[in-house]
Structure to design on (178 residues):
């Protein structure tokens, strides 16, 4: 169904482009509108296929497993980095963040929509608030490390740890309820 949708999108909009320039004096409106409708139907088919795929049980289960492992890893790494911050050079923190956190952050972000499909929008919003705040504090620690604001590095790492721990606790609470 998805391939048909993409084919209709391409054919519809290519034909629409052709019909809009084929004649200098006027546009063959009927042909143009038909080709644009075909493109719109293609968009509809692709979106329906993507929506069905996003709600499939296998994909939800896989994504929720990815979320669990990435949140666990983020919380552990944030705790470890926060505990090591006093023995580290604050100017090196940004390198550690780049090396240790990016993969888990990306994994979580790619799978996050499954949270709302499984647990609802409110649970998604609550968990995403904690996650996004933790990510923001991690970014703040990164910037402070680059700029040499030692106290801000320390404060931001502590806050990032608390937020990632909170996000993990919320996720565990959701999975325990279902």
């Amino acid at each position: 169904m998805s391939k048909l949708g993409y084919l209709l999108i391409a054919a519809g909009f290519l034909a629409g482009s052709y019909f809009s320039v084929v004649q200098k004096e006027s546009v063959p409106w009927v042909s143009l509108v038909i080709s644009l409708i075909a493109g719109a139907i293609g968009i509809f088919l692709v979106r329906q296929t993507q929506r069905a795929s996003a709600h499939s049980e296998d994909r939800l289960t896989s994504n929720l497993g990815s979320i669990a492992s990435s949140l666990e890893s983020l919380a552990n790494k944030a705790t470890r980095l926060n505990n090591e911050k006093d023995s580290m050079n604050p100017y090196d923190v940004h390198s550690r963040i780049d090396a240790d956190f990016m993969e888990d952050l990306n994994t979580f972000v790619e799978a996050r929509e499954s949270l709302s499909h499984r647990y609802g929008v409110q649970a998604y919003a609550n968990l995403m608030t904690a996650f996004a705040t933790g990510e923001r504090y991690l970014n703040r620690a990164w910037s402070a490390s680059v700029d040499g604001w030692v106290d801000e590095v320390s404060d931001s790492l502590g806050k990032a740890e608390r937020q990632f721990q909170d996000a993990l606790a919320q996720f565990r609470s959701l999975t325990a309820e279902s």
About this structure: The mean pLDDT is 91.
